[in-house]
Design goal:
The termini are far apart. About 45% of the residues are buried. Helix 15 packs antiparallel against helix 16 and helix 16 crosses helix 17. By secondary structure, the protein is α+β, with helices and mostly antiparallel strands. The chain is globular and about 65 Å long. The longest helix is centred in the middle third of the chain and has 28 residues. The strands form 7 sheets. Strands 1, 2, 3, 4, 10 and 11 form a 6-stranded mixed sheet that branches.
Amino acid sequence: MKIFLGIDFGTTQTIVTMIREGSKYEPEIVEIDGQRTVDTALRLDAEDNVLFFGQNALDRMHEAPEDTFYNFKTAIGSGKTFRSSCKDYTPETLTFLFLRHLRQKLEKKYFNVGNLTAEKDIYCTIGCPASWNEKQRSTLVDLAEKAGFPNVSCCDEPFGVIYYYHFRGELPLTKTRNILVYDFGGGTTDVAIEEISPDSVRAVAGRAALVAPKVLAAAGISNLGGKDFDERLRDHFIEEMGGTAATFGVKDSRILENYAKLLKEALSISIDNGVTFVEKVVPMLFSRRSSHKLALSKKEFERICGSFIERLEEPIYDALNTATFGVDQVDDVIIAGGSSRLYYVKSRVKALFPKSNIVTSANPVEVVAKGLALYGRSPVAEAKPGGVLQEKEKEGSAQSAETKVLLSKEDTKPERQKRPWGQKWLPVAAAVAVMAFGGIYFYSLQKNTETVSTGSTPVQATQTAKETVNPGVSVKETEQTLESSDEHYALGDKYYKEGDYPQAVEWYRKAAEQGHTSGQNSLGYMYQHGLGVTQDHKQAIEWYRKAADQGDASGQSSLGDMYWQGLGVSQDYKQAVEWYRKAAEQGHTSGQNNPGYMYRNLGYMYRYGLGVSQDYKQAIEWYRKAAEQGNAFAQNSLSDMYRQGTGVTLGVSVKETEQTLESSDEQYALGLKYYKERDYRQAMEW
């Protein structure tokens, strides 16, 4: 009988599930060392042997912190290394060693110490974020196979979540549904918007199956998860006791972090029961040689972790902006991930999507893993072991006209509009065509809403490239005749659009080395996202800085993004503000992913005093600029500030206030004010 394993290989925790062929029940959790979840951590010796695994590795981290590894999943494909006491490890090597040890534990307990690798009737599905590129996906599958797991396929984690709830009958497919999956895990926060319809359930390999949905948007924060809250609370308790990380040491810091997590979870449960205060006693702190009582209230929690709480909504708005969706277009919101138990998550999601069907589970941490096992059992996974089914419509098929092509490699290529140096330029003539006796003509393939300083305008660059082309010569011969940086950049653009990222990098580099700022921005982008090169945030910083130092607003904005997110550099809000302001002074109005991204970040930093003195009026000014660019996060934040009266004065008199309101956010806020005052006629008007 066939057995199907689902492996939710998480940033901080890993969960394995199992289901047998023909079972009508949910997949069961496979316990590792008696635990339903295993911490994604391990301690190694000099010969790469695993000395301690999972929670044991973290609990004993104080003994050899330099040889204990965790949080390595998100670095896959980044080129980053982890230094031990005697050697460097890549995240790929650490992933292989972790998965191999996991497989060995499974063999010992569940397969009578048999060789899992040789089992032909065992199928494994490992999950990955929807935002991962094809290289990261294939790397993860290869590592799982090398670690000894048989018949490995890969599935997007959000689709695993959808598969699980479809299995439970909680996602009826009587119509096309837009589903937003909010996965708040231990190390990352991921959001995906996917579309499924009645056509999504159809015959595959002779059986009915839910096939892959259409991915409309994916967004996330790679450095925000439940563990960040735990560490922030731990630091607060250390400070409260008059100590520092150095005086408490690794062992006591680990103990306090565990208790901070317990307090956070207890507070969420208590709030559901109407209690807003919890406390726990730590039996022994080695640096103090005594017990200590820790207390946490809802108000104190929100003060300590306020900046994190605010960011929880960020990927939601990013995904909505990418999908060009309003909240009313989302039919279902699924909350998943172990950290989603945080009381704020469910209440805020309900407030953001008042008309949507909110779906959650008593054990949200297990949802992804169960969905992956169910996906692995489906004929979809069997039809395409690599994990992505690509259907070809057959002539004469009754369903062919209605069948949607599943997500393919072409669908997963990065959208050009996401590039940090500008989503849309001022209308620029251009397109690229390979025609006329094998010659090539250069056109700019994109229409933009803003110009970028390149030493010459985009139009000039295109015209120069056109004049250089000689019909009748080969592409290689044409490449050899290109001399100007504009021409090199235009050819790089052509290759980027065609998805030939290594060639795009080559020509962007030629332009960048000649000082072409758009070439420098583009090369920085390729390094930042690992397109055509090994992902290298430090290289991305270097090229963004070259453009920024030339006074290029896009380079300045991109550099601000890197400092904002702490990519390639230590997170530094002060530096982020400095570079954002330089770009803003030149009228730059777009940031890394969405219109108004940069302005939104400036508003956020002024609102919470990150890198600058807290200034609500400045926050409102920047939020308004971002809102005018269509940034949903900024629009919502602006409305919140007006509702709360933060940084604004609603007029000397109501009439005077009404006369000064111009934006829809301000008008909405006043309408809400009247609604709360039960003046429904005025509320309707505003």
